[in-house]
Specification:
By secondary structure, the protein is an all-alpha fold. Helix content is 81%, strand content 0%. Helix 2 (30-38) crosses helix 13 (288-348) and helix 4 packs antiparallel against helix 5. The N and C termini lie far apart (66 Å).
């Protein structure tokens, strides 16, 4: 059932991606796009790579801060899991969160449910940054296009819904009590006990929200983290031959983040192109430059993450196989040593 729903989600993402891609291509001169890509500046495109890598580094740092009250997890493991989860999301939309939780849960003392809750905290802070930068956009330009305004209010809704959900789960209330009774009536007793234990372990993942200092640090790291992506967007447009303003780069990013709440195609094709095309349409009548910039972003950010994520997955697999082989060889040595001692004892015994 889970595999079937995953295929459906991927299919929906491909359909939506194709629709977004088609909308982005309307009225575009393909030859002009190819010419923009052929004449793209190399240096800005190359600088996108360290900006993308820095984003993942700060993302891991932020994640370690969120998980700090729960338990210690090696930074290198979190870094690899962040790449693997991002690569999974770029392959099958919204599959990376569960994969990250399972990877960390199996390789650390932190429960997978708590890790998954920490990823939910990440998402809330992501949309808090969207809301904050959307507010800056409103201050800089009060006549934003309707689609940008809608995206901003969607982000506000996501933040409020996320915080209300956490409050409902964490704070005792009549609503939580009635919800608990409803769940008990619908689930068998053993299954309810299992879900209750998972919920208790999961609530630990929200511990970071109880510390004001951690909340401030996580929010600042979120700003810094997404600043790297906004810089990458600016560099991609510069590579395609256009120097964006900060507000335009933020607009593209807001549309991209909110658009990714929908199912997306592999490598986020279509979603990325539409975000660039709509975000830059306020200042550019020509759409070939935004489309070319989106292609640079796809190649230098999304595909880069997919390649590194796959490499991390293979490396972790090799480590697991090496650990299993070491454990197996150790067990064989122990068995041989035990047999050797038994042989010596049998030879030394009097007839």
């Amino acid at each position: 059932m889970a595999i079937r729903s995953r295929y459906k989600w991927t299919l929906y993402g491909i359909i939506i991606g194709c629709i977004f891609f088609w909308i982005s291509l309307r009225g575009i001169n393909i030859d002009a796009v190819l010419e923009s890509l052929m004449t793209a500046q190399v240096l800005p495109a190359v600088l996108v790579l360290p900006a993308a890598a820095l984003f993942m580094l700060i993302k891991t740092w932020r994640w370690s801060v969120i998980l700090g009250p729960v338990g210690h997890v090696q930074f290198s493991l979190l870094h690899s899991a962040a790449y693997i989860g991002t690569a999974a999301n770029l392959s099958i939309a919204h599959s990376g969160e569960l994969l990250r939780a399972v990877l960390i849960g199996r390789r650390s003392s932190v429960a997978s449910a708590a890790v998954l809750a920490s990823i939910g905290v990440e998402r809330i802070f992501d949309f808090m940054v969207v809301v904050a930068l959307f507010g800056i956009l409103l201050i800089m330009d009060q006549q934003l296009p309707e689609y940008v305004t809608v995206a901003g209010f969607i982000a506000v809704f996501m933040v409020v819904a996320g915080l209300l959900t956490i409050a409902l789960l964490s704070v005792p209330s009549k609503a939580r009590y009635h919800l608990r009774l409803l769940v008990i009536s619908l689930l068998p007793e053993k299954l309810w006990e299992m879900k209750k234990n998972q919920l208790k372990r999961g609530l630990v993942g929200f511990s970071a929200l109880s510390s004001p200092s951690i909340v401030i640090n996580v929010f600042l790291l979120s700003l810094l983290q997404w600043g790297c992506i906004i810089s990458a967007i600016w560099l991609c447009a510069l590579s395609a031959g256009y120097a964006l303003t900060i507000s335009m780069a933020i607009t593209v990013w807001v549309l991209m983040v909110v658009g990714l709440t929908l199912p997306s195609s592999p490598a986020q094709l279509g979603t990325t192109q539409l975000a660039f095309t709509l975000g830059l349409s306020m200042a550019l009548s020509e759409t070939q430059i935004p489309f070319a910039a989106s292609v640079v972003y796809t190649c230098c950010v999304n595909i880069l993450y997919m390649i590194i994520g796959m490499a991390c997955w293979v490396r972790i697999g090799k480590i697991d196989r090496r650990v299993a082989l070491h454990a197996w060889s150790g067990e064989v040595d122990r068995r041989k040593d035990k047999e050797h001692r038994s042989t010596l004892q049998s030879v030394g015994e009097p007839q």
